[in-house]
Design a protein that fits this description.
Strand order of the largest sheet: 1-9-10-8-7-6
Number of domains: 2
Shape: globular
Bound molecules: zinc ion
Low-confidence stretches: 1-23
Oligomer: single chain
Structural class: alpha+beta
Length: 687
């Protein structure tokens, strides 16, 4: 696995102004996005829902707008695939809850009704009944009796009970899944020593053991194959007549009805593609959806990654494997975007110097790429988020994931500026930094350099970090199993952290002075060692790959740096703080850890990788955790953010010819989710 999703340090930034940002402001003014734009949409449980602007959309050509429209429809059609992938009862539960929500005629002012409404908002956010980040089942704060009463009070004709199934049968099936904390408690279980296939609630496997899955795929692999397909990427593993088998996600296979719709929109998009290369890319994706052939998926990925000139770009398909305990099965996701020209100057400089960064990194020469291939990097404006990019979304993406394609054809890396902007705008003045930063100098640095260094960290992580280094011959990435994702993120983050402090960045004009990087160093460690714990419930471990990675790095450097007082945890007035005393030496520590993590990856050293993650990335100090939660609670900030999408509409003349595409931002979270469920929901309840 190798790619990335990243999204966290941005929770802390304010607004330093760079030239790129000023250009963007002008662009936003041209698009009618002014100071009255409302970034905050909704808040419930541990979630805040934001809205993102799409500066530049109105200036696109008609053809580009039209293509974004069709691709955005394709992006929304895959929503239910993701729901079903997350758990095989998700679609039934969502549709029953929505049926109640839209048709219940009784009292809607009671506390229990409000809790029911919150639950529905939570599962919308998670695309299922398990928390999108923590992996735990979301426990309703209303009673089972109340829920049964609601379901039975609604006209059955308005409820989505499966053919021939009455309310009682449906309830019998879903009640334990919703209310019993011991039934399917975790979407993805990573606990060492357990059968991570059997104990995970994801719908990637059914009726098979971890051993059976391992045997099944090991039998397919050829160690001599230099360009292997991504085995198991697009299928569910089950047993038929006692024999382990795959149900492939394709036209005519599993998820047929949704894929048919996706293909329909892709065909329209291909017809208005910007150039032949892009048209061919979309057509290859269509062929892949029709056949499910993983070789065709690789063909598509190569075409996609080598298209570096199209202004409009997109991701659509079974891409990231974070939610599979075995690290093979990909969740469905989509994002449609276009290039942000001004801001992309930054990433262009970075990618033009990619070989210099590779050559000068602190890792062993045996693990370095002799020739860094085509790291294409750009800053983009997201136009629509779908599947696993919605409502929670990454702020940077690096694809494709197949190692051999990255080796032979390079990778495409993006930083998503308008999402970062929305995070920053929404966090202005919330008191977070004042509460957790050690002194005025950290605060001032963060205010002055925070936005810039945070974006730069994302750029470096995406366009250099993930693309750097190589595996020794014969080593495959999946030997690291569930530790592969957090270690890969660790590697990319360390590469970025190490180079943020390099004089080369000032020389290249990416940073204004040799002081700026300290803003990101401090924020990074404060987050990894302390404040990200606001996203973990009391008594739980850290589960999510990026959170594990940030904890791993931060705690490791604090452990190594405490003896010399390079970086320490200190208590003042009963409050814990991170204090950095020597930024130069801190950089050396990042370099040392980078060298070791690269070695682990290059050699496929499972035991060392496991030890690093389990020692530094998983466990939580309960006392520190309680303190951080208390301090955070007083600020009344939701630790997780999701987004609503803008709404696009085709404008046609009397002859049906498209004359424009409009964008609007006035849809709220509830209406958007309900509309998506009406408009883009064609899968059967269970798949
Ligand atoms: Zn990453």
């Amino acid at each position: 696995m190798k790619k990335l999703i990243y999204m966290l340090t941005t929770l802390f930034l304010l607004g330093a102004c760079t030239n790129g940002k000023q250009a963007e402001s002008q662009q936003m003014a041209d698009d009618g996005i002014d100071s009255t734009f409302e970034y905050k949409v909704d808040q419930f449980a541990d979630i805040e829902i934001l809205r993102y602007p799409v500066p530049g959309f109105n200036s696109l050509s008609l053809g580009q707008k039209e293509m974004i429209y069709y691709l955005s429809q394709a992006a929304l059609e895959g929503r239910d695939i993701l729901w079903d992938q997350h758990n095989r009862y998700n679609l039934t539960i969502r549709r029953v809850c929505e049926g109640v929500y839209e048709n219940y005629m009784g009292d809607k002012s009671s506390e229990e009704w409000k809790q029911f409404e919150t639950y529905l908002k939570q599962i919308w956010m998670a695309n299922g009944i398990h928390h999108h980040y923590a992996e735990d089942k979301i426990m309703p704060q209303f009673s089972q009796d109340f829920f049964v009463k609601l379901v039975k009070s609604v006209d059955p004709g308005r409820m989505p009970f499966r053919d021939g199934m009455a309310a009682d049968e449906t309830l019998e099936e879903i009640l334990p899944v919703i209310f019993d904390p011991t039934v399917m408690p975790k979407r993805m279980n990573q606990t060492p020593g357990t059968d991570i296939v059997k104990t995970s609630a994801v719908n990637f496997y059914e009726g098979v053991t971890q051993q059976e899955v391992e045997d099944f795929y090991n039998a397919m692999k050829d160690p001599a194959d230099n360009t292997p397909v991504s085995y198991g990427l697009n299928s569910k593993v089950t047993k038929v007549d006692g024999k382990v088998t795959e149900q492939v996600w394709k036209l005519g296979g599993m998820y047929d009805k949704a894929i048919e719709r996706i293909v329909g929109w892709l065909e329209k998009a291909a017809a208005v593609a910007e150039n032949d290369h892009q048209k061919q890319t979309i057509q290859t994706l269509i062929t892949y959806y029709k056949t499910g052939d993983l070789k065709t998926f690789d063909d598509y990925s190569v075409q996609w990654v080598t298209d570096t000139t199209s202004h409009v770009d997109f991701i659509n398909g079974f891409i990231e494997n974070y939610t599979d305990p075995m690290g093979m099965k990909a969740s469905w996701e989509s994002m449609v975007n276009f290039k942000s020209i001004e801001a992309s100057k930054r990433t262009t400089i970075i990618s033009e110097n990619a070989q210099w960064f590779e050559d000068n990194s602190p890792v062993d020469d045996r693990f370095k790429k002799e020739e860094v291939k085509g790291v294409s990097a750009k800053v983009i404006t997201a136009a629509i988020l779908g599947g696993d990019c919605y409502p929670a979304t990454p702020i940077g993406i690096n694809l494709p994931n197949a190692d051999w394609i990255r080796r032979d054809h390079g990778s495409k890396s993006v930083t998503i500026d308008n999402i970062t902007l929305a995070y920053a705008k929404a966090s202005e003045g919330n008191g977070f930094k004042e509460e957790f930063m050690w002194s005025d100098s950290e605060l001032e640095r963060s205010t002055k350099y925070g936005t810039l260094t945070d974006n730069l960290h994302t750029d470096l992580h995406e366009c250099l970090g993930h693309g750097s280094g190589k595996l020794l011959p014969g080593v495959s990435t999946d030997v690291l199993q569930a530790y592969g994702s957090p270690l890969e993120e660790t590697r990319a983050d360390l590469f970025a952290l190490y180079y943020l402090a390099d004089p080369k960045l000032v020389e290249l004009g990416l940073l204004p002075d040799s002081e700026a990087y300290k803003a990101e160093y401090y924020t990074y460690i404060m987050n990894g060692a302390m404040t990200q714990l606001t996203r973990v419930q009391p008594g739980k471990n850290i589960e999510q790959a990026h959170m594990r990675n940030r904890a791993l790095i931060s705690r490791w450097v604090i452990e190594q740096g405490t003896a010399d007082s390079v970086v320490v945890m200190t208590v003042r007035d009963n409050k814990t703080y991170v204090v950095v005393n020597d930024y130069d030496k801190l950089r050396n520590l990042f370099g040392q850890l980078l060298a070791e993590v690269q070695r682990i990856k290059s050699e496929g050293d499972f035991e060392a990788g496991k030890k690093l993650v389990e020692t530094y990335g998983v466990k939580v100090d309960p006392q520190l955790h309680a303190e951080v939660l208390t301090r955070y609670e007083a600020l009344n900030i939701a630790p997780y953010k999701g987004f609503v999408n803008p709404v696009y509409k085709l404008v046609t003349d009397e002859g049906g010819k498209v004359t424009d595409v409009t964008i609007s931002y006035d849809e709220n979270y509830v209406n958007q989710q309900l509309r998506y469920s009406r408009q883009y929901s064609v899968l059967p309840l269970k798949n």
